[in-house]
Specification:
This protein is mainly beta. It has one domain (2-22, 39-135). Helices cover 8% and strands 56% of the residues. It is built from two helices and seven strands. Strands 1-2-3-4-5-6-7 form a seven-stranded antiparallel β-sheet, with no helix packed on it. The model has no long low-confidence stretch (mean pLDDT 85).
Length: 145
């Protein structure tokens, strides 16, 4: 479940909060799981701030995870801070890429109780398209050069 809202006192800033629940269940065909697969129940809360006044923007995100595993319960903390670029439609059309593209680069850090921490760069590409765009059959209005 995700909720988002803009701040009236901070223009171009959006607060996004996500609550996730992932429950591992036993199913008849899943009894013989590989030994390296851990059956987990996960509850995750992620508040984040997005500042995007135009084509470029920045974000900060924090995630609190509650993990329930056969070996016990533990908390995990993760955070990301980064920048994003919403590629303009006329540019992606010149590159012959279908749909709307967004690129992110961020620094990410994760700490899991009793297991240690991990950190590094994270790169994401979001693409919003449809089958007509991918096949090149959607009528696209001409762009100005």
């Amino acid at each position: 479940m995700t909720a988002a809202g803009r701040f009236f006192f901070l223009p171009d800033t959006t607060l996004i909060t996500t609550l996730r629940y992932d429950r591992a269940v036993r199913a008849p065909s899943r009894d013989d799981m590989p030994p390296d697969v851990v059956r987990r129940n996960i509850v995750e809360l992620t508040p984040s701030l997005l500042y995007k006044p135009g084509e470029f923007g920045g974000f900060v995100e924090y995630t609190l995870r509650f993990l329930e595993e056969p070996g016990g319960r533990r908390f995990a903390h993760a955070s990301r801070i980064g920048v994003l670029w919403d590629a303009p439609l006329d540019r992606t059309r010149r590159w012959r890429l279908p749909g709307k593209w967004q690129f992110e680069i961020s620094y990410a850090a994760t700490e899991v109780e009793e297991l240690g921490d991990d950190q590094g760069l994270s790169v994401r590409v979001h693409v919003k398209t449809n089958l007509k765009q991918v096949l090149g059959r959607e009528k696209v209005p001409p762009t100005g050069n």
